């Protein structure tokens, strides 16, 4: 049984904003995570949701290469059908399971939408293991989890909060909330570790664990691993074409997955008047697409604090954020 209670501290108080307000701590046995009040009605529907063996799930902590991975996975699992991919948005092809519970002002029934998808379903979510459907352990659909080093993940999430969620505070307050496990979907370290450990279990062959850094270092090799995981085979020329399609510049210009609709929603819904003026700049949902972009936003003190956080997160495991 999942229990929940209102959660508030100096960190949540400083980052509350129109898109994510009223934080709650959810617990299940010895596991816990932070979500917002809007998510609470989704707990039971998600737990009880039907899961199918031919489902394909892409799961990440927010801002860890989710959109990039979704586009790759959908194309690999659909015969590289670029024409169809161009006609349907990524949200239509690969919907976000808990979207209506992840943003305070987002309407709709995202769980019902996923339940009604024709099979095989492609499902995106950011949920920690403890909040996944109960049937996912026994049915064992294909799960692709992507991690990212905490410094870059936090930096990208900060820009997401500013430009999508409606946060107008200083970056230091946001980084403090990340380091003190007080953001939605926190704790980051346990989120990553739980999926890493799942992927290493004898029964975890249905969970492929990737890192953003692997994808940046050798996307072609990752395409090969994901193809094999999905039971697909493609020629060298086909992989060449997919690699070009998945470049940062191509993804930014791809209207089916560059999230322009979400940006427009944010401008009209979560942005303060100050933010509306600032939004006239050229922010893009697919931002830098690099490893090490945190250096533009963190001073030496925060870099050191995040490196200490990384060491604590990986202590006692064979996991490395950069492997």
Automatic annotation (TrEMBL):
Gene Ontology MF terms: sulfotransferase activity
Sulfotransferase domain location: 54-315
Highest taxon in the source lineage: Eukaryota
The entry's keywords: Transferase
Family: Belongs to the sulfotransferase 1 family.
Protein's name in the database: Sulfotransferase domain-containing protein
Lineage: Eukaryota, Metazoa, Ecdysozoa, Arthropoda, Hexapoda
